[in-house]
Amino acid sequence: MRCDHCGYDNPPGVTSCGSCGASLPPRPEAPRLSQKAVWSVVLAILGLCLPVVLSIPALILGILALSDINKSGGRITGHSVAIAGIVLSIVCGLISLIMLILAAIAVPNFLHAQQRAKVVRVQSEQLSVAIALESFYVDDNRYPTDREYYTGDLLPGGDILEAKFERTLTSPVAYISVLPGDVFRERAYHYGYWTNGRNVWIVRSVGPDKTPDADLARLGEYLSSRRRNEPWPPELAGWFYDPTNGAKSRGDIIKTGR
Question: What's 226's DSSP letter?
Fold first, then answer.
């Protein structure tokens, strides 16, 4: 260390000049790397996996590190590291924002698509049941009886749990291999069924609201006297599921035959 008084170069570590004896200033500390800047980068990198949780702390640490570095008078380094942490945290924040936007768009669309797929499945299965009913009618000149002759459990409105309806369609002649269950029921209940035995039948799924809405007996009585292409009266129209009212709107998915 050079003496300011006499210009003598002293060896490191001495506190006074070896030539003139003057006191030497303390040796300046070596600049240290900002730990806040380091942690800003670390959290920003980890934020690639958890952007919502870690990107904001990384950004805050990066800003604090820059402030400390600018006020330190050269004692603290890591300006570029702090900048890197800030940039990475912003990138992670943008990624998380984009992910949230995509999720907000994709999740409802997925749920609606799933609901539509269930509706299509119900309509397809009801068509299979309808074919079985008409095939049974061709052979027996009547439709399988409904709840009047049941000894099994029943639900309100003529819905079938387990009863002769399934056995009649599946044995001894297999008009349908297995009577499908309603996908909109929490348990594997069969579709609701009503018939007058002569010329009208109704097959009903409770629909996305999972609640029976239609009175099958009343609907069957109306069908027995309804002229073809006659519009449904307002008090009955609300019983039918309409996807234009919303994917989970009220109403039953109903297929009729006469």
Answer: P
What pLDDT, in 10s, does the model give residues 150-184?
333 334 444 444 445 666 788 788 888 888 888 88
Which of 112, 127, 121, 245 lies closest to 183, judged by CA? 121
Predicted TM-score of the model (pTM): 0.61
Residue 256, phi then psi, degrees to nearest 5: -125, 160
Query: Rounded to whole angstroms, how far apart are CA atoms 155 and 228?
Result: 30
Reading the block at residue 94, the tokens are 């943008």
pLDDT, tens only, 47-56? 877 777 788 8
Structure tokens at 9: 């170069």
Question: In angstroms, what is the C-alpha Rg of the chain?
Answer: 40
Contacts of 229 (CB under 8 A, 6+ apart): none
The three-class DSSP label of residue 36 is helix
Extract the runs of DSSP E, i.e. beta strands, from 81-226.
154-155, 159-160, 192-195, 201-205
User: Quick check: bond before 156 cis, omega within 30?
Assistant: no
